[in-house]
Amino acid sequence: MTALSRGSVVCLAWMAATVYLVDAAPLETCGACHRAETQAFAASGMAGALSSARNSSILRALPKLTARIGLYSYVIARAGNESILTVSDGKETLRVPIAWVFGQGSVGQTFVFQMEDRWYESRVSYFSGTGGLDLTLGMEDITPHNLLEAAGRLVGPAEMGLCFDCHATNVVKTPALDLAGMIEGVQCERCHQGAEAHLQAVRARSPGATMKRLGALSTEELSDFCGQCHRTWSQVAVRGPHGIENVRFQPYRLANSKCYDAADRRIRCTACHDPHHEIETSLAAYDTKCAACHSLAARRNGAATRLCRVGVRECVKCHMPKLDLPGAHAKFTDHWIRIAKPNAPYPN
Amino acid sequence: MLAPRLLLLALLACGLAAWAQPDATEEILKQAIVLHQAGNIAGAIQAYEKYLARRPDSVLALSNLGAAYARVGRYQDAIVQYRHALKLQPGYPSAELNLALAYYKTGQTETAAGMLEKVHRAAPEELQPVLLLADCRLGMGQNKKVIELLTPFAERRPDDLAIAYLLGTALVRDDQPARGQVLVDRILRHGDSAETWLLLGTAKLNAGDFPAALADLAKAVDLNSNLPDVYSYYGQALLRTGDPAGATAAYRKALAANPYDFTANLQLAVLLTEDEKIAEALACLGRAQQVRPNDLAVRYQLAAIALHDGKLDAARRDLESIVKEAPRYTEAHVALATVYYRLRRKDDGDRERAIVQKLNAAAQVKQQQGVNVK
What we know:
The complex is a heterodimer.
Chain A: H1 25-31, H2 35-42, E1 50-52, H3 57-61, E2 64-69, E3 72-79, E4 82-88, E5 93-97, E6 100-102, E7 108-115, E8 118-127, E9 132-135, H4 147-151, E10 152-155, H5 157-167, E11 168-169, E12 183-184, H6 188-191, H7 195-203, H8 219-230, H9 233-239, H10 250-255, H11 269-272, H12 287-291, H13 296-300, H14 315-319, E13 322-325, E14 330-333
Antiparallel strand pairs in A: 1-6, 2-3, 3-4, 4-5, 6-7, 7-8, 8-9, 8-10, 11-12, 13-14
Chain B: H1 5-17, H2 24-37, H3 41-54, H4 59-71, H5 75-88, H6 95-105, H7 109-122, H8 127-139, H9 143-156, H10 161-173, H11 177-188, H12 194-207, H13 210-223, H14 230-240, H15 244-257, H16 262-274, H17 278-291, H18 296-308, H19 312-325, H20 330-342, H21 346-368
């Protein structure tokens, strides 16, 4: 009954937090008119979701990273502008230059290398929680049979295309993966498709220079839009993962919340997160978002909602608890809004 | 699959016996049959058509012309000739079997199976219609019917490898690996064959051991790339081991060999949809639907494409009908929830979403209990 679908992509959707400098060129062009958005976005985690090994601030700052996992030892060492991954089983050694660094580093970074025109996802990742290397998420059940498998997991071009497409801009996926025009990180045109045509039209003072307004999307449409990379409710509902592994997939978790209403703009992704700014880490900053529905004022305006009997500050601390994701060495905010009782099972 | 040449020869033999009193018109038929036997099909077709212009009710010529059309792949034209012949002379020897074969070749598997049942009932010990019927049933996913049909034949003909192969395939697909293994062993005794590796690979695919299945199926492809279904199953193994590009290529090869390979059509459609090649995906689904008209997975894919194209009402109608028939079809409930939300039918969307949560929770409990959840 179940139609096959493509293999699950171990997408490391690291949450943003660290200020990161990126190539400013594409932002500057949009920034001529949209200065506030582009300036704020340049400092966001999404803008630094991908970097070459050469540009990686973490690999530059940590010139030697080591780990031992099972039979294999791992070293990532800086050599000039390169970072070399060395894997050894004590008898033989494999050395490969790292090509790309996925994730901006607030939780971690995973490395990608190429051998004989094939892509590999490194078996070890950098985790900021420990400041060192450990097993990449999703690799727990993979037993390497040789040095190459110990170095990384072979990733097909289609899957690799999906990885790049979420972490970078202008990625050509079909008919073959083409990174020639790729810009590192999520830049304006990754979300605002047609930005280049819009820019040209504006320069030419041509009518029809308007772009699709993402702000006009409904709550459900926006959830699917952000879910392109953060996973949609339908993707996770059909393909999983189930269990604590899906705590990273915010659109799925949010849509399962009792208060999620596909037609109510107060619960959509951008109601709480300004996509052009770095993520807000102050818990109290979200109180007004909750109060948009759960307050006396909202009830006076017709909202049939309940009021919290415990408090009115830092609502998310209790109702959106931060949960440990095993292997990530980090906690993730669970977007399944609920009355989270101590020791209650993780809702799926 | 089963070569129609034996049937053709039988027909031709009948034809030769009919030449008692040759006249000028009968000479045309004689010439047609000579050309047909010599492999000059285009010439034979021309001659049969010329003859039929003078003797339009010649059942022999109609049937032979059908066989000639079938030989060059003009199955629809062949069907017209066979049906005309059978209308003139119901039960005409071999015409029913040839007509069933033409239906089979054009993906009208259900119709072919119906005709073959009739042929089988008329001559229960004839092996050829039985094998063809079993193959139709396999293509339609009716594994239990294949097992029921072939088990008595397998007992009477333990050395017949075609029976062993078809029955073994049905048993493996029906999750009866132990019984299937007996037949695999029987085939194995006859040496290293593509059929054996295909059977072993299929069994491993069903058991979820995808890398091992891939290795076995690669051997089957190496040994005989023309073996029916081999590329279809190879494609599945490639897909399950994370190589959608390889799977796409394999499915295309499967369809080059048999345009009505159900699995290859369905799975290629899924991949093409993901690559936004909707027109080609729809063509694949159309062929898959010809083989299994009411298959839920095909209907689900068509609904998913309607949803993708923004045809919300069409998608809703299809999905509602699917979940009515298969209330535990999680993907359909997921898609239906999305459709309802896009139609601004929040309560219905919420209801579908709650059903998905319930189904997923139940599936997880089963998984934790070690039950294989498909």
